[in-house]
């Protein structure tokens, strides 16, 4: 939501040539040596696969209202379905939805929102960062001033405002499908600044290097130089930021859901599930809150640990 | 600022002196004004009922009883009502109450700037007969007039004049927005909007104090889970409402009791009776199936109300098939129950209407207005799916909801109605009568339902003095809207308050917290 | 230097005006304020009259210009919901948020730096690794959930701390403070932990990575080689040199503390400006929303400027382009 430390990411971009080499040897070696990295990656992989194959794994389709029976509501974990005899291993929620299935489907939405939002932020941020760094002048001034305001302007506020507008201008019949896309745009737009700042900083350093000068001499155009020569050399800090942003985006989606601007309850994300579940904290149906929370915690924690490890691993100074 | 600081110092010292009888309560919304005529909303009227009083008031069973008027009687053949005022009543600032205050409060409350002016729509003239007698003349005979002004509160004319608050203010600050001077059992001691409002007993109150409170503090707590935590940890003595799902657990907790009742509010599904076509989903633009009464009947049979009551409402609500609940005046006792939950019958009805393959449409719903409204709508969606109707749910905060409904952006919608007059005529006037802005009828009839016979009966009901005849007409209206399935009433929303064990109180069906009935042991 | 400041202020004002314009264009999507202001029994005539009275029938550009004109004279209008001047309401509410932000910010800085140094010095120790991992748990759950869980644990189950609100406050020259009463101080604990947790983690990780960098520097090795005590090396030499980026990031975090206060305040019913803003959204109280957004924008721009100037003052090499 805000920038995790950039200084080392920027400094690190000053040693560009190392990245590819690191990837080949040291990087892979460091990964094999780190149980935390292996564990975190495994957790992320399992969760991503579970999300992708949710329709195959989930015992029920919680998004299909015709399969729900309200009388199954609030079934405790491990209790059989009164109608079909299947066991609800993680219990059911207030609508009689199987919590395990809703988590799988919710994970899908959360990951989709998270990945897409980060991708959007990355594309916007990297593009603007490259332009600002390479072109300089008024383009840089505008981009960086907007970035300044945006950076200090709270991301959740930005997201709430964007959500408000998008809901307003979307024709009513598309609103439900739109909610997810609006979330992506809202979180993505509130998150591009860190990418822009880091890329700009790195570009400023790169553009005066000899190889860029050389490219310019042989007649390469600005965009070509930015894409072909500068971009590959700033990718490692971008990768680190993207990983941490992914965790933040998933949490941001949950937070927005609490503020009432999240995924629709008929197609809940993990965040929406937690928002719904917190209403049952005192009523004794702990499983409605606990299991989605654990899943979100595991996902965000694993992604954060990966980001943490990546930052250390890609930072040659910490070798 | 300075005023507030002195007040808080006083409040602190009082709190310290007699902590045992300080009553602290919390509710979701802060009463937004201390002006009894500026805002007509339950939080405001409920709160101010402790500070201000009307000519009449409602007792523990909702019946109308004398307050500032000791008696009242119709004039002639229903030309109006004569109220005899109570003598020896003083306002909080010591001023004496008399007919001038009634006239002044009438003018204030019926002015353009007032939000409660509609209560006085039937009134043609108010006449001061003497210091303690006032006549209210009505354009037509009006049997329920005394009932309808139970929340009309009397303000001291001199106090209002002296403080520049002769009219209620909505768009600007006004002395009466933050201060109060009523005749009620409690004095507004400190007002910090959105934070805390403190009341202390009125020593010269005319009535006999039933309570033993020395100070009462109100705090708004928005997040339901926080409110429950505050009650459980003893930080407050009462919360209203208790989230339905927490009621059973709270009732079992040490030191906490749950007080339940049936609220006046009926929750129902509404249909677009006037729309030619559907507006949502892939079938937008197709003819509107809800114009066929069989489709509406099918919906009534398809919604499993007992299941909603058992799970989402946790057994705390009553099913409904009339637009008012049983304790209301004009509820018809001998009518049949709501249609049985019967999937097969619903499917047959759909088939008869030519929709054996079902259809899809959009369901509009609030998510912050009624108890568990979003959950109920979700459940409705899955129940309708069982008979082949695919409802796309669009749940939104109430601030966006009414504008949507007013623009007719719905194929089906959720509505809750609480009759302000506690009379069956109220929902008929607002949500059943044909929309007619000039006559101020049908202003919440979003679906555009229209029945010539009901429109004909309504004015007669409004002016009928004979209760038997009135009930007959109400019964006919009720049968018509039930037979035509103008709405599908689902259930009557419950009232659930949570309090510490040490508190004894009376819960009124209108959700008003009356402090003078509260005792702390 | 002065030219730099002027240029930055000018640019910031332009951005602020645009932010304001965008915000105003969006208010009508939040909902219709009239719906909340009139009761069940209002008529269409009442609605129209009120709409005209509030100027809501005019295009949003006109509404915006009016707002700007009034705001320039220090008049932020009257709250639709409370019927009181917005400036008064904000002044009443600001102390609560500022005190909460100050406490959680201080907490985040002190604990964050302490743990950051510790984990850097004992880089491979078990305790550091546990702290590093645990700190991530705090940022891997949404704030509202952490708040609710804290209430559940410390107010309901253990009955140690108040579940909501600010406790008793005392007025000191127009400022309501919770610092002077016992209940006020107790009430601060849970919300400030909830609010400060994220920043604490952030600062701790930043200090750690900066320390690791610095500890590898030659002058630290020399200091060690000279036989200076470890404590002196770590704190007097190393920590001092990590503080510049820490100050910057902390400065920028002030903004996000105020923003996240919205959630913390909602969960704990903390009567600050964040809760006010959430209420304003709920009731479509446009004057309050507008004033809040403008106020925090101005504050954020000011913070930004101060951070830039600090940079300027600390590191002359950066004079060419503001940051990095």
Query: For the residues shown, what is the average pLDDT of chain A?
Result: 79
As a percent range, the share of helical residues of chain A equals 55-70%
Low-confidence stretches of chain A: 1-14
Number of helices of chain A: 15
Radius of gyration of chain A: 22 Å
Q: Give the CATH H-level superfamily of chain A.
A: MetI-like
In what range is the share of β-strand residues of chain A?
under 5%
Strands side by side in the biggest sheet of chain A: 1-2
Number of helix segments of chain C? 12
Q: Which chains share the greatest interface?
A: A-C, 59 and 61 residues
Poorly predicted ranges of chain C (pLDDT <50, ≥5 residues)?
318-324
Structural domain tally of chain A: 1
Give the end-to-end Cα distance of chain A, rounded to a whole number of Å.
29 Å
Structural Rg of chain C: 24 Å
At the first level of CATH, what is the class of chain A? Mainly Alpha
Distance N to C terminus of chain C: 18 Å
Q: Report the biggest beta sheet of chain C as strand number plus sense, adding barrel if it closes.
A: 2 strands, antiparallel
Shape of chain C: globular
- The coarse overall form of chain A would be elongated
Short descriptors:
heterotrimer; A: 319 residues; mainly alpha; MetI-like fold; two-stranded antiparallel ribbon; 15 helices; 2 strands; elongated; disordered N terminus; B: 521 residues; alpha+beta; eleven-stranded mixed β-sheet; four-stranded antiparallel β-sheet; 16 helices; 19 strands; 22% strand
Model description:
The complex is a heterotrimer of chains A (319), B (521) and C (324). Helix content of chain A is 69%, strand content 1%. Chain A has 319 residues and is an all-alpha fold. Chain A has a single domain, classed as Orthogonal Bundle (MetI-like fold). The longest helix of chain A is centred in the middle third of the chain and has 37 residues, at 99-135. Chain A is elongated. Mean pLDDT of chain B is 89; it is low at 1-19. In chain B, strands 1, 8, 9, 10, 11, 12, 13, 14, 15, 16 and 17 form an eleven-stranded mixed β-sheet that branches. Chain B has a four-stranded antiparallel β-sheet with strand order 4-5-7-6, with helices on one face. Chain B has helices spanning 2-17, 42-48, 99-109, 145-148, 157-162, 175-178, 224-232, 247-252, 293-302, 305-310, 343-352, 373-386, 398-406, 425-432, 452-463, 467-483; strands spanning 22-27, 56-58, 64-66, 69-75, 80-85, 123-130, 133-138, 186-192, 196-201, 215-220, 238-240, 256-270, 318-319, 360-366, 390-396, 412-417, 487-500, 503-504, 519-520. Chain B contains 16 helices and 19 strands. Chain C has a domain at 91-208 and 253-273. Chain C contains twelve helices and two strands; from the N terminus they run H-H-H-H-H-H-H-E-E-H-H-H-H-H. Chain C has helices at residues 2-30, 33-37, 44-54, 60-72, 86-121, 126-139, 143-157, 182-215, 218-225, 230-268, 273-282, 286-314; strands at 170-172, 175-177. Chain C has a two-stranded antiparallel sheet. The longest helix of chain C has 39 residues, at 230-268. The chains are: A mainly alpha (319), B alpha+beta (521), C mainly alpha (324). Chains in contact: A-B, A-C, B-C.
